[in-house]
Design brief:
The complex is a heterodimer of chains A (156) and B (273). Chain A has 156 residues and is mainly alpha-helical. Chain A contains 2 helices and no strands. With 273 residues, chain B is mainly α. Chain B has a two-stranded antiparallel sheet. In chain B, a hairpin with a 7-residue loop joins strand 1 and strand 2. The chains are: A mainly alpha (156), B mainly alpha (273). Chains A and B meet through helix 1 of A and strand 2, helix 2, helix 3, helix 4 and helix 6 of B.
Chain lengths: 156, 273
């Protein structure tokens, strides 16, 4: 055990080595390690973000699909309603038309009928006058007997 | 080897002799060139290797060399992180711990080199003696521990101020209350602190020195046995192998303990009582 100047020389050497490590080794290593840690953390964060975005996208897609489905159903329902309405309208229009036609026909028939009756009546009246003329063997003054003729015509 | 008639004492003496160089008058003004040379070489190789790797360090996928250095640095950093909570450890404590660990491991590891084979080489430098394990030189271990001791005092004063440091020197750990007991407590406090300040560097350095020195002595004893004949060579080789394997543990463990104590002492210096 002989302590000598070696001790001081070694202590100086030790100080120099610490200084070397402090200045030239540690900062570089730390930088590399921290940069890598940051890269890893960034990567993990990006993965997490991607995951979340995917989830959001699928959610929004679901929503869009649901909306579209709802709209389609709405349109379908509306169309059906419209179709029913159209059919109803057509039906009622046809019915109305039919009624009108029927009424017109009826009116015409009645008119025809009335006209025919009138004709018939005139003819019967004429026939009756002619008959009476034959019976009386002379001409009937239509003027003089117009009241009578009218009443006969009325009775027919 | 060099000695003509080989006795155990001369053999051990020979292997534990330093290569000295006087640089002045008196015993103190001497240099152990062997310790200085080996430790400087090992420090330059060790720290230089790390520096070389670190200069080319990439933040991407590290190659094997960089992964090894990173493993080492993160191991040291983890230890420091667990102990030192008094500011930015990256500024001083962690690099210092790395330096201590790498340097001491390398110096301890010189113990594995077979003493007599190394002698063939070192004889070219010095026929008289060349000790290749710097940590078996008490100057080396005290250089480390006293440096740490100075750092301890420096950081204690830096973190608490000179007044705060003096206050702690006189008023802790027993305190000065009640006030009538203060005259009795103050000397006790001072005595206690002085013992602590003396025992820390002494135990710090002698633990390392003792372990490495004892390891070296055991190797030398085995090699003396090996020189005693064929049976001795066989036994000593087997035992030497066993001791070398066990010594791997001691080398790493002592370096680890030395580093941990360095960090602990510096951390304690920051602590306010």
């Amino acid at each position: 055990m002989n302590i000598n100047f070696t001790l001081i020389a070694q202590a100086i050497m030790f100080a120099l080595f610490i200084l070397f490590t402090m200045k030239l080794i540690w900062p570089y290593m730390l930088r590399a390690i921290e940069a890598r840690q940051k890269a890893i953390a960034d990567g993990l964060a990006a993965a997490e973000r991607g995951h979340r975005e995917l989830e959001e996208a699928s959610q929004s897609a679901d929503q869009t699909i649901a909306e579209a489905r709802g709209r389609a159903a709405d349109i379908l329902a509306q169309t059906e309603r419209r179709a029913t309405q159209l059919i109803e309208e057509a039906k009622s229009a046809a019915k109305g038309e039919g009624e009108r036609e029927k009424a017109a026909a009826k009116a015409e028939i009645e008119q025809e009928f009335a006209r025919a009756r009138e004709q018939l009546r005139d003819q019967v009246a004429a026939l009756a006058v002619a008959g009476a003329e034959k019976i009386l063997q002379r001409e009937v003054d239509a003027k003089a007997h117009s009241d009578l003729l009218e009443s006969i015509r009325g009775q027919l | 080897m060099a000695a003509g008639n080989l006795t155990p004492t001369s053999y051990i003496d020979h292997h534990l002799a330093y290569l000295t160089k006087p640089i002045g008058d008196g015993g103190f003004w001497t240099l152990h060139l062997d310790s200085l040379l080996t430790s400087a070489l090992l420090g330059i190789i060790g720290m230089g290797f790390i520096w070389w790797v670190v200069r080319g360090a990439t933040a991407g996928v590290p190659d094997r060399r960089q992964a090894f250095v990173e493993l080492l640095i993160e191991f040291v950093d983890d230890q420091v992180k667990g102990i030192f909570h008094h500011g930015d450890r990256h500024k001083f404590v962690a690099p210092a711990a790395l330096t201590v660990f790498v340097w001491v491991v390398l110096m301890n590891a010189m113990d594995f080199l077979p003493a007599d084979w190394m002698g063939l080489g070192t004889n070219l430098i010095s026929e008289h003696g060349f000790r290749i394990v710097p940590t078996t030189d008490v100057n080396m271990t005290f250089a480390l521990s006293l440096s740490v001791w100075l750092l301890m005092i420096y950081f204690a004063i830096a973190s608490k101020g000179f007044g705060g440091w003096l206050h702690e020197l006189f008023c802790t750990p027993f305190g000065v209350k009640p006030i009538w007991a203060a005259p009795l407590l103050v000397p006790f406090n001072l005595l206690f602190n002085l013992i602590e300040y003396v025992s820390k560097p002494v135990s710090h350095s002698l633990r390392l020195f003792g372990n490495m020195y004892a390891g070296e002595i055991i190797f030398l004893l085995l090699w003396i046995w090996a020189a005693s004949g064929l049976v001795g060579t066989a036994f000593a080789s087997v035992l030497g192998l066993g001791w070398a394997i066990f010594h791997i543990l001691i080398v790493l463990l002592q370096a680890y303990i030395f580093m941990m104590l360095t960090v602990v002492y510096i951390a304690l210096a920051h602590e306010h009582h």
